[in-house]
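All the exercises in this workshop are built on plain-text protein records. A record pairs a protein's sequence with a compact description of its fold. Backbone structure tokens are a discrete shorthand for how the chain folds in space. Once this layout is familiar, the rest of the handout is easier to follow. As an example, a complete record with its sequence and its structure tokens follows.
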Amino acid sequence: MTEPSRAVFLSYASQDAEPARRIAGALRHGGIEVWLDQSELRGGEAWDASIRRQIKSCKLFLAVISANTQARE
């Protein structure tokens, strides 16, 4: 798992998973560690607790804002 204190946490709406993966790939290509839930969470893991822990300890929280995020309640 990526070291939480050094990683960028990438937050996105589930409908934006593909653009989020492309953003994460570009950041990683530039040498930046990225925490992306689809690649970092493991089966059977307490997802909510893991995500909250990553958010609290990340170096940078990056929110992907789109029409999908605006439509969420």
In short: The first helix runs from residue 17 to 29. The radius of gyration is 12 Å. The chain has a mean pLDDT of 80.
